[in-house]
Amino acid sequence: MPHDHDHDHHHAHAVLPSEPALRVKALETLLTEKGLVDPAALDAIIDTYQNKIGPKNGAEVVARAWADPAFKAALLADGTAAVSEMGFYGRQGEHVMVVENTPEVHNMVVCTLCSCYPWPLLGIPPAWYKSDAYRARAVREPREVLAEFGVTLLPTQKVRVWDSTAEMRYLVLPMRPEGTEGLSAEDLATLVSRDSMVGTGLAQGPAT
């Protein structure tokens, strides 16, 4: 019996696809067929984190910081309290620290142990953020990683890498693009991407 069980165990792993996305889909299908997962409920959860709890929340925070100096000061002093005031708190967002990009310093966030990420502000972490390659290289060669994301920094700019953990998650406050002085907070939020709040991207100008 132990031998047969071991054979079945290895066989089950053998039939699962190697690609993570395909493995997830295969597991979802198996759980749905067994009646353990409601596909509609699962879709609702994914939609919530992607479109409601996702990067739009973080973009609202950044836009408000750009437009409101008092809020920006409060955000940098106590990120958790400031974002909670806007209603962005909960699981995976209990402790948030905001770090500001400047002409002298560019900040970049990684989780070297797993995939700690501020879900209430940015939604579900992308696959590249959870990859072994990003987790290792972001610390070892951040400039090269940034260049692969299309971010080329001046030689005079320092790169500061923050290691996100279960105790503290980080949000990058990107620099406000030039030529946006007359934009509303709503319009400013459209210039903020998820990657710019992780540090692997820059906020886009209004004409982009």
- Runs with pLDDT <50, length 5+? 1-17
What is Rg?
20 Å
CATH topology: Nitrile Hydratase, Chain A
Assembly state? single chain
Tally the helices: what do you get?
A: 12
Strand line-up in the sheet with most strands: 1-4
Number of domains: 1
Q: Could you state the CATH homologous superfamily?
A: Nitrile hydratase alpha /Thiocyanate hydrolase gamma
Describe the structure.
The protein is mainly α and 208 residues long. The protein has one domain: Nitrile hydratase alpha /Thiocyanate hydrolase gamma (Nitrile Hydratase, Chain A, Alpha-Beta Complex), CATH 3.90.330.10. It contains twelve helices and four strands; from the N terminus they run ααααααββααααββαα. It has a two-stranded parallel sheet. Strands 2-3 form a two-stranded parallel ribbon. The longest helix is centred in the first third of the chain and has 14 residues, at 2-15. The termini are far apart. The relative contact order is 0.15.
